[in-house]
Design brief:
Length: about 300
């Protein structure tokens, strides 16, 4: 099947490139009617496009069900091929625009919710000043969704703490980091810029969301040492909450560049949790194995890894 698709040449691919996008929309919506609403075309017109594609391929891409549609066995193979072609087409367009000097495109960075994203703000600001036509977005991604988000092209690459790898995704940059606490300046906690886990007994913590790798590690360490800190609030942006609340709280986070200006809330200091208590870990830039990044994504990836390496 895939050999046939590659052998059928550019004619079929270019003739049906828009239909490839239609197929992707149908898969994401789960029905032709739902995809038609998203695409702002009529269901009958969308169905005719799919039927023309199926006629050229000699297969049924979708099984028509009583409620919606699902990819057929052959359709699953075709869908992977179609996603590859759409990615290649987007990459070609980005490269053409780069040569023309327009530098337009879209970059979506996936981030695990236990990594503090404040360090990205100056990086994004600087990048947007140089490439104002590039659309940048950050998307929180869970461990369970990481592979699908990368393989389906919903994110270009991910910044992730302790990712679970598979044959479809790989790490292309890694940095060892400490687990950090954001502590009010007046708090007498720890010494030599380091805190032990037992210092947190009974204190109110603002933490990353549950089911993140950081929280699994932290809760496991607390359980082993029979320590019960108070989990006051779980949220993806501890800095913003700490900055706005009048209550003295302690934030738990992965800070890729803790010394960077603006990362820590005003009136707070950084302590690291002792490695003997919680260990350390790695933040990683994760990509899909077969993907070639677009010009814009490649440029931002290059600057991100340089920033992390400082």
């Amino acid at each position: 099947m895939l050999r046939f698709l590659h052998q059928c040449g550019e004619t079929l691919i270019m003739r049906h490139l828009q239909t490839f996008k239609y197929v992707r929309a149908i898969v994401e919506a789960g029905s032709i009617r739902g995809a038609a609403e998203t695409l702002a075309i009529s269901p009958s017109a969308l169905n005719r496009n799919i039927q023309a594609l199926e006629l050229d391929l000699g297969i049924s891409v979708f099984d028509r069900l009583s409620r919606g549609v699902a990819l057929s066995v052959e359709g699953e193979l075709f869908y992977r091929f179609a996603l590859e072609q759409l990615t290649s087409y987007d990459r070609m367009n980005s490269q053409i625009e780069a040569v023309k000097g327009l530098h337009i495109g879209k970059v979506t960075i996936g981030v695990s919710a236990d990594i503090h994203t404040g360090f990205l703000v100056p990086l994004i600001t600087e990048f947007k000043q140089e490439f104002p036509q590039v659309e940048l977005s950050i998307q929180l991604v869970s461990q369970s969704d990481l592979e699908d988000q990368l393989v389906n092209g919903n994110i270009d690459f991910a910044l992730f703490y302790q990712p679970q790898l598979s044959r479809n995704i790989k790490i292309n940059f890694s940095k060892q980091v400490d687990i950090c606490l954001m502590v009010p300046n007046g708090a007498k906690l720890g010494q030599d810029r380091t805190a032990r886990l037992h210092h947190l007994e009974g204190l109110n913590l603002v933490t990353p969301p549950a089911h993140t790798e950081l929280m699994a590690k932290f809760e496991g360490a607390c359980e082993r040492q029979d320590i019960e800190p108070t989990l006051y609030l779980s949220c993806p942006d501890q800095t913003q909450y700490l900055q706005q609340t009048p209550i003295a709280l302690i934030g738990l986070a992965i800070l890729p560049n803790p010394n960077q200006i603006g990362v820590v809330p005003v009136g707070y200091k950084i302590l690291k949790l002792h490695e003997n208590d919680v260990g350390s870990g790695y933040i990683n830039v994760v990509i899909e194995r077969k993907r070639h990044l677009s010009f814009a994504a490649s440029k931002f990836h290059e600057r991100l890894t340089y920033n992390l390496d400082q």
